[in-house]
Amino acid sequence: MKIEQLKMLKTVAELGTLKTASETLFKTQAAVSKGIKQLESQLGIELFNREGYRMSLTMQGQQIYQLALMLLQKAQEIEDLSKHLNAGNEAVIILAVNSTFDLTIILPVLEKIQYEYPDTQVIIRQEQISGAVAALDKEQADLAISVVIDETSTNQKYDLLNIHQASVVSVAAPKLINRHQMLIKARQLEKEYQIVIQDSGKQSKGQLFGVQTGQRCWYVNDFATKKTLILSGMGWGGLPEHLIKQELASGQLRPLALVDSYNSLQVNYCLLKNKNRLLGPVASLLWQSLQEMSEQTDS
Hints:
Elements: H1 3-15, H2 18-25, H3 29-43, E1 48-49, E2 56-57, H4 59-86, E3 92-98, H5 107-116, E4 121-127, H6 131-137, E5 143-147, H7 151-157, E6 158-172, H8 174-177, E7 193-197, E8 216-220, H9 223-231, E9 237-240, H10 245-250, E10 254-255, E11 264-274, H11 281-298
Parallel strand pairs: 3-4, 3-5, 7-8
Antiparallel strand pairs: 1-2, 5-11, 6-9, 6-10, 6-11
Helix pairs in contact: 1-2, 1-3, 1-4, 2-3
């Protein structure tokens, strides 16, 4: 059984005559007829009724036809993928992203990549604190979106592009806030648990950002868990503003107003790529598209 024979089966079944099928396939009528008969012989099944003017599928032929459509689709996918890879396009690209970053900002760019390069798989790898830069450093990612801790040293190894600024807000649930009269200082929260994200990289070298000496802490590795614990009143901490808009509006969370602490932190997100590593066509388009998006936002 050959792909060419399945194409003949499909075309004859849909057009009804050998003549129109042969014209569509750019083959002689005799060649199409022979191909169909050979397929019937190989399968041991009569695929078509030939009594009338138009050829129609038998009941068995209808079942074979449905499977043939699936096989032809897979064959076309293999051809398309082969062309895609032979053109030098990547099979997979990996984008490492700081988990505080609002992905909705870059959805138009991701949709563009999906449309123009449907055969390239995109892996979005969420990391904490310096983890996205660490993934780039280990060549476990092609590009990264991250807050840069040490911009001077980072500039030596990576090309940087500022693409977005956002806020991380210190919040707590009313249940926790109500345990304290006149809550105005971070020291009043010393015995409450601050929920802290652990770094999935090593750039922070164990530093705890925004944690006061003597503070009780619980450690988590994702913001969904951190948000759940803070909403329950079990602790307090900083959360990206875009993740808690509804909770702030409904009063489920309240922003802290502490006179001796940063209550809101502005963070700058950078797009990074390794200076010494050439990007493939798809990763290059992603870089260029995010750069254009950033320039349009600034203008």
